[in-house]
Design brief:
It is built from nine helices and seven strands, in the order αααβααβαββαβαββα. It is of the alpha+beta class and 263 residues long. The longest helix has 16 residues.
Length: 263
C-alpha cells in the first residue's frame, strides 16, 4: 500500500462522501433487484472486452469531488495486458522485495481475475492541446491500481495470493498502490472507494472484501470503510500484518442512501 495520511472520518461518512452513484442505463434495475444469497454457482466470468465495455460509465469518476487531485483528471478502468509493465514497476517501487508481487503473479491476476483488477488513469491535459494545436496529444497515465482475487474461505491467506476461485464469495485484495509522484493527492483513497463500489454494484455474490495492511495504514483503510479485525496469521515479509474487512452489503446500503438523497 502507498503512503497516506490518517483519516479521522467514520466509515459511513467516508463512503457516503465518495463518488456519485453509478449512472448507467441499468442502474435503476440493479438497485431494485434483490441481492442473491451467496451460492456455489456463479455467472460466467465476463471477458475483458465485456468488462471494459460496461466499465466505462460506472468506473469513470471524472466528476467525483472527494479527492485532492483535479476533478476531471482521474478515471478508472480494468487493467489491460499493456498496463502490466507499468503496474509491475509501481509494485516494485512501493513494496519491499520480500513483499512485492512478482510480474508473473500480477499477470496471473490480470488474466484470471481481470474484473477485480482496477487501474486509475490520470487524464491527459486537454488545455495543452487547445494552447498548442500542433503538439502531439499526451496519453493518459496510469497512476494507481487495486487488484484482488476471489477465495472460498472468509480470510486472506498466503495461498490466496496466488490463487483465484471464480466461485468464491470473499474478495482478497492484494495490492493498493499509487504512483510515487502522485501520492498525497487522495488518489489512493479515490481508487479504493471506486473499486469497492464497482465490486458491490456488479458482483452480488461477493460478500466480503478483505485485505492485509501494516499498523500505520489501519487508519487509511478505516477511512475507506474497512474495519480492523485483528492481527493476521499471515507471514509475508518482516512486519506484522493486520486483517481488514468490509462487507459489500454495507457498501450497497451507502450507495442506495446516496442515490435516494440525490448525491
Amino acid at each position: 500500500p502507498s503512503r497516506h495520511m490518517r483519516h479521522a472520518v467514520s466509515p459511513l461518512a467516508a463512503l457516503a462522501r465518495g463518488s456519485p452513484p453509478f449512472a448507467t442505463r441499468d442502474s435503476a434495475a440493479r438497485r431494485a433487484r434483490p441481492v442473491r444469497a451467496a451460492s456455489g454457482s456463479r455467472d460466467p466470468v465476463p471477458s475483458p472486452s465485456e468488462i471494459a465495455s460496461r466499465a466505462v460509465m460506472p468506473l469513470d469518476d471524472r466528476t467525483g469531488g472527494f479527492h485532492h487531485a483535479e476533478r476531471d483528471t482521474v478515471f478508472f478502468r480494468p487493467c489491460s495486458p499493456e498496463d502490466l509493465p507499468a503496474v509491475a514497476e509501481m509494485e516494485a517501487n512501493s513494496y519491499p522485495p520480500d513483499e512485492k508481487a512478482s510480474s508473473e503473479s500480477l499477470a496471473f491476476r490480470q488474466q484470471n481475475a481481470n474484473e477485480f483488477f482496477l487501474v486509475g488513469m490520470s487524464k491527459s491535459d486537454a488545455r495543452t492541446a487547445e494552447l498548442e494545436p500542433s503538439s502531439t496529444p499526451a496519453e493518459d497515465a496510469l497512476v494507481s491500481y487495486v487488484c484482488g482475487t476471489l477465495a472460498s474461505g472468509t480470510t486472506l491467506t498466503h495461498e490466496t495470493m496466488s490463487e483465484h476461485d471464480p466461485a468464491g464469495t470473499t474478495l482478497c485484495v492484494h495490492s493498493v498502490v499509487t504512483c510515487g509522484s502522485r501520492r498525497r493527492e487522495g488518489i489512493g483513497t479515490k481508487t479504493l472507494r471506486a473499486y469497492c463500489r464497482w465490486v458491490a454494484a456488479h458482483y452480488e455474490d461477493v460478500d466480503t472484501i478483505v485485505l492485509l495492511c501494516k499498523k500505520h495504514l489501519i487508519g487509511f483503510y478505516e477511512g475507506a470503510g474497512f474495519k480492523m479485525v485483528g492481527e493476521s496469521s499471515v507471514v509475508h515479509g518482516a512486519d506484522q500484518w493486520y486483517d481488514m474487512r468490509l462487507k459489500t452489503v454495507f457498501v450497497r446500503a451507502v450507495m442506495e442512501s446516496a442515490a435516494e438523497d440525490g448525491e
